């Protein structure tokens, strides 16, 4: 979206070129990473994975402020690709965290609303981004977009999670194994009685 707006307003690239490069920059990371990003997310703390992703996306966005000519347009596509790459870790972490926050009977509704929110964002995001770029310019748009990631990070810090909610699946499995070994290592009540 930002790449298309900057190009059409000041850099002179054809719309088809801008759209093609934007689609590649946003789609390629998903194609390359989506199959195994979740494997890493399962081993990490979900809240901190999402928080780190938000802060990284905020930082990466500032690369766009360096774009002042057609020679630096490639920075926009690098930024889009980096954003898409980081999102491959944020999204599965957020989906995995939902069951820890929602009661089982409301889980289907929560997952549906989450998917709907993502779809609506993809649909109206470019439109709103174009409006922001027209009204605020590149710098204002970048700052506004960065503010949304900072807001998300703050909200993540304020979420009250159950005791094991922020643990990754791998950590939860280790916890269960540890408890099981602990139970097996203790002498049973029957053994104590028979010894008496």
Furnish the topology, listing elements before pairings.
Elements: H1 2-11, H2 15-41, H3 46-61, H4 74-101, H5 107-158, H6 169-185, H7 189-195
Helix pairs in contact: 1-2, 2-4, 3-4, 3-5
Task: Provide an overview of this structure.
- With 196 residues, the protein is an all-alpha fold.
- The chain contains 7 helices and no strands.
- Helix 2 runs parallel beside helix 4 and helix 3 (46-61) packs antiparallel against helix 4 (74-101).
- The longest helix is centred in the last third of the chain and has 52 residues, at 107-158.
- Residues 1-12 and 186-196 have low confidence and may be disordered.
Indicate the multimeric state: single chain
Order of helices and strands: HHHHHHH
Radius of gyration: 23 Å
**Count of DSSP helices?**
7
Shape: globular
What labels would you give this structure?
196 residues, mainly alpha, disordered N terminus, 0% strand, globular
Q: Quick gist of this model?
A:
With 196 residues, the protein is mostly helical. 80% of the residues lie in helices and 0% in strands.
């Amino acid at each position: 979206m930002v790449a298309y707006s900057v190009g059409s307003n000041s850099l002179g690239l054809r719309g088809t070129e801008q759209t093609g490069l934007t689609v590649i920059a946003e789609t390629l990371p998903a194609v390359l990473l989506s199959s195994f990003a979740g494997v890493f997310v399962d081993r990490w703390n979900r809240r901190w994975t999402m928080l780190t992703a938000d802060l990284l996306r905020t930082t990466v966005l500032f690369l766009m402020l360096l774009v002042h000519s057609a020679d630096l347009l490639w920075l926009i596509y690098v930024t889009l690709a980096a954003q898409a790459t980081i999102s491959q870790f944020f999204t599965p972490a957020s989906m995995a965290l939902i069951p820890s926050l929602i009661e089982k009977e409301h889980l289907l509704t929560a997952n549906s609303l989450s998917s709907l929110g993502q779809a609506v964002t993809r649909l109206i995001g470019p439109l709103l981004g174009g409006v922001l770029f027209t009204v605020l310019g590149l710098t204002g748009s970048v700052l506004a977009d960065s503010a949304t990631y900072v807001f998300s990070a703050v909200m993540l810090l304020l979420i009250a999670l159950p005791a094991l909610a922020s643990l990754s699946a791998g950590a939860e499995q280790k916890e269960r194994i540890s408890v099981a070994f602990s139970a097996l290592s203790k002498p049973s009540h029957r053994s104590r009685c028979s010894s008496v």
